[in-house]
Amino acid sequence: MTEPFVFQSQAIRVLFGCGTVQSVPAELDRHKRSRALILCTSSSRPTAEWVQSHASGLSVDIHQLPPSGDARERLTSLIGHAREKDADSLVVIGGGSPIGFAKTIAAKAGLRSVAVITTYSGSEMSSSWSIGAGKDRMAGDDDTCLPLTAIYDPDLTLSLPPRTSAASGMNAMAHAVETLYGPDLNPVVKGLATTAVGLLGSSLPRVVDRPNDIAARTDALYGAWLAAAFRAQAGVEHALAQRVRQNFGLDHSHCHAIFTPYAIAFNAKAAPRAMELIARALGAADAGRALYELNVRIGLPTGLKGLGMTEADIPKAVDIVAAGKFANPRPVSREDLENLITQAYHGEAPRF
Question: Does one domain contain both 145 and 215?
Fold first, then answer.
C-alpha cells in the first residue's frame, strides 16, 4: 500500500524536444512579454542571435555575460542594460551561470525569464538562487525567480564539448542520487529520480564517445530534467560540493562529479534502499563504486587535486563544511568530513 505523502509541484511550463527553441517567440507572447532582453554567454551567442532574428518585435537587445569578473558588477551591468532597454523579461540561454544571473534578476528587479537550456546543470528548476562567492555571495530562495517557461532542445546540446557534457551530466546525477535518500522523499520523486539515474548512467558514455549522437543527447537532457525537476532535499554531497567549490574557486559541475561517489558510499549502510535503486539503475552491484567507475569511464578527474585544490586546503574545507547545516541519512561528524574530503582530494576509489 502506498503511504501518504506530500508533493509540491512548481509552476514552470516545460517544452522538451528537438527544435523547441523555435517556440521562444510564442512563449513570450503566451506570457504577455514583448520586450525581452536576451541573456547569453559567448558560447550561446549564435543561438541568442538566432532567437533575436526570429523574435522580431519581442526582443530589445542581447546582453552577453563576460566570462569572469566581480559578480556584483556583472549583475549591476545586466540590470542597467535591462532598464536602459525598458525590458519586461529575459530570454536566458545557457547553463548554470546565465540561469543563475536570470534568477537573481528576477529576485532583484522582478524580471521573469523564458529559459533555453543548453547544459545538464538543472539550475532552472531550483527556486534557490545565488551568484558570487565568499563575502560577495548573494543568495535566496523564491519561487518567483523560476522561469516562466523552460525549453529543452537537445539540438542545442550538440556543441557542448564531451568533457563539459560529462561533468554537467554528473552534476545532474548528484541531484538524482541524493534525492533517493532525502528526508522529504515521496513516491513521485523516487520513481523519477531512479529513472534519471538510469538515463544518465547509460547516456553519458554515449555522449562522450559520440558527441553528435542526438539520441544519447536527448536521453541525457531528459535525465537531467528529471533529476532537477523532481528532487528531494539534498544531503552531504551538496553540502560538500557547493561549499568547497564556492570557497576554493573550483568548477561547479566537476566538484559535484568528484564528491558524488564518496557521499553515496558514505551513506550506503544508512540508506540501503536508495543504494539498491541506484545500483540497479546503473546495472551494478555497488552504488558508490559504480558512480566512481562512471566518472572514470567518461574521462572526468576523480580527485579534487585534479581541479587545482591543494592538500593544505583540506583543514579549511573541513571547517567550512562543518560550520553549515544539512540533512543526511547518516550523522556526519567532523572526522567524517575530513575523511570524505581527503578521499575526494586524492581521487582513489571510495572506502567506507
Answer: no
Asked if pLDDT for residue 184 goes beyond 90, the answer is: no
The phi, psi pair for 328, rounded to 5°, reads -155, 145
Residues 238, 225 share a domain = yes
Does residue 181 sit in the same domain as residue 305? yes
pLDDT band at 135 (very low <50, low <70, confident <90, very high): low
**Is residue 1 assigned to a domain?**
no
Assess if residue 4 is contained within a domain.
no
Instruction: Determine phi and psi for 193, rounding to 5 degrees.
Output: -65, -40
157, 178, 207 — which closes off a domain? 157
User: Count of domains in the chain?
Assistant: 2
| CATH at residue 197 | 1.20.1090.10
What residues make up the domain containing 223? Answer: 162-346
Is the pLDDT reported for residue 212 higher than 80?
Answer: yes
Mean pLDDT of 306-315: 96
Q: Tell me what pLDDT residue 5 has.
A: 66
Q: Return the pLDDT at 107.
A: 87
Whether the model pTM is above 0.70: yes
The helix (H) or strand (E) run that includes residue 277 is helix 272-282
Q: How many angstroms separate the CA atoms of 84 and 147, rounded?
A: 22
Q: Is 91 left (phi over 0), alpha (psi -120 to 50) or beta?
A: beta
pLDDT tops 70 at residue 164 = yes
Mean pLDDT, range 238-254, rounded to an integer? 93
Cell, residue 270: 544508512
For residues 291 and 177, is the Cβ–Cβ distance under 8 A? Answer: yes
What residues have CB less than 8 Å from 167, skipping those under 6 apart? 251, 253, 254, 256, 257, 300
CA dist., res. 71 & res. 138, Å (int): 9
Residues 142 and 168 in one domain: no
- Do 189 and 245 belong together in one domain? yes
Quote the radius of gyration of the chain (alpha carbons, Å). 20
Q: Do the beta carbons of residue 13 and residue 43 sit within 8 Å?
A: no
Place of cell 567549490: 245
